Hints:
Two copies of one chain form a homodimer.
Chain A: H1 4-9, H2 16-26, E1 33-34, H3 36-46, H4 53-66, E2 70-72, E3 80-82, E4 88-93, E5 98-103, E6 120-131
Parallel strand pairs in A: 4-6
Antiparallel strand pairs in A: 1-3, 2-3, 4-5
Helix pairs in contact in A: 2-3
The complex binds manganese (II) ion (MN) (2 copies) and zinc ion (2 copies).
The site of one manganese (II) ion has 2 residues of chain B, from loops.
The structure holds a DNA duplex (30 and 30 nucleotides).
Amino acid sequence: xxxxxxxxxxxxxxxxxxxxxxxxxxxxxxxxxxxxxxxxxxxxxxxxxxxxxxxxxxxxxxxxxxxxxxxxxxxxxxxxxxxxxxxxxxxxxxxxxxxxxxxxxxxxxxxxxxxxxxxxxxxxxxxxxxxx
Amino acid sequence: xxxxxxxxxxxxxxxxxxxxxxxxxxxxxxxxxxxxxxxxxxxxxxxxxxxxxxxxxxxxxxxxxxxxxxxxxxxxxxxxxxxxxxxxxxxxxxxxxxxxxxxxxxxxxxxxxxxxxxxxxxxxxxxxxxxx
DNA sequence: GTAGTACTTTATAATGATTCTAAAAAGGTG
DNA sequence: CACCTTTTTAGAATCATTATAAAGTACTAC
Lengths: 132, 132
Ligand SMILES: [Mn+2]
Ligand SMILES: [Mn+2]
Ligand SMILES: [Zn+2]
Ligand SMILES: [Zn+2]
């Protein structure tokens, strides 16, 4: 199967649940943004087996740790994840409460002039809030 | 008093609790970042009267609505607020779990090239994650 | 294959930040 | 002072997330 090696290579056993979650997350043309609740709904629609909510949490966190998912820094009562793990940015539509990808190319190069002693930059993320 | 007019001008009654919270938030030389829990601790240290947690929540939200405080978009189990309401950015030190201000001048000008139909840009915020 | 072991799933409970409730207190106005 | 509105408050409720621990599954060694 498509995702068995991917999981094995990360030291994650390719269980039925994880493979099914992979299908839901990574088998679509487009990448997308989701909360755990969104994902739970999507799984219910696409998968006939039941996957417990605890497993969904566990799996999403495991995938995030392995770099298959990213968290998006945003203030919300739920955590937003992204299946687009490329270096990119986001619009946040305040009215629709929706995230929209903003590719690196759509943002001029960002040059952080200030340096912090003994620290390295791990990521630079831009959030552009949108209103009507 | 210093903050009575400020509150009245915003349509907020200058209660004892709000004035005391103003002292803690706005009377220091430097601006700072805080969670509600941080603020609760700070109030306990600096103010002899007890202020209920509900009032702290109410007041912080009222001040945010009036523009005296800003929320910082970041993934945490608590909401981070900023008494620095100027247009600026942040470092986030992942190990220390601390925010550091990054003035606009410390970030090159940011040019958002992509436009979203019918939407205006309300804010552009950069989060720079730091590791050792 | 079987046995042994570590990992995973699961239902359920616990946690904890935040919000809600509704009654008491305080502010503002005349 | 009355009157009305806003605010404070203790405590309860909410709800996303995490922890627990027992049952199930995957892998390894023989
Ligand atoms: Mn289904
Ligand atoms: Mn803190
Ligand atoms: Zn994205
Ligand atoms: Zn700041």
